[in-house]
Amino acid sequence: MKNLMLASTITIFALSTSAHAHGEKPHARKFSEQQLSENHAFGKAGDPLKATRNVAVDMSDRMRFSPDSLTLREGETVKFIVKNSGKLMHEFVLGTMNELVKHAEMMKKFPGMEHEEPFMAHVAPGKTETIVWQFSKPGKFHFGCLLPGHFEAGMVGKINVTTR
What we know:
Strand order of the largest sheet: 1-8-5-2-3
Largest sheet: 5 strands, mixed
Helix content: 10-25%
Structural class: alpha+beta
Distance between the termini: 71 Å
Shape: globular
Radius of gyration: 18 Å
Number of strands: 10
Number of helices: 3
């Protein structure tokens, strides 16, 4: 009985102190200069002091975002205030549909992968995170939760960036 209790205690300790998989822990939101200055097809990290618009986005365990469609202007710097109102971990990742699909497939193959970028927020249940993003080009972009099964269940939204 003592051995069983000791084994259980060691297992619980090991699980609680082991490296967490992508999306299972709150992440420090610190980025390198390269990450902050990198241009993507859908824009670049924005300066929080230059945000011209706040957009509240709610994520739920119904595997949906609210709102799930946005229209923004080219050059606009947006502060996304992303709340997880569910009981499951969710994430908000900006990108082109092609990039999101590739990333979602990679997440299925490597669910323990850890990474952090200025265009993604991993949000624990009941918590809120922010992303500040400048949409420097017009086009059709998306956001999604790329945790395995969430994207496939329809947890994706659209962003239409219009010309100035």
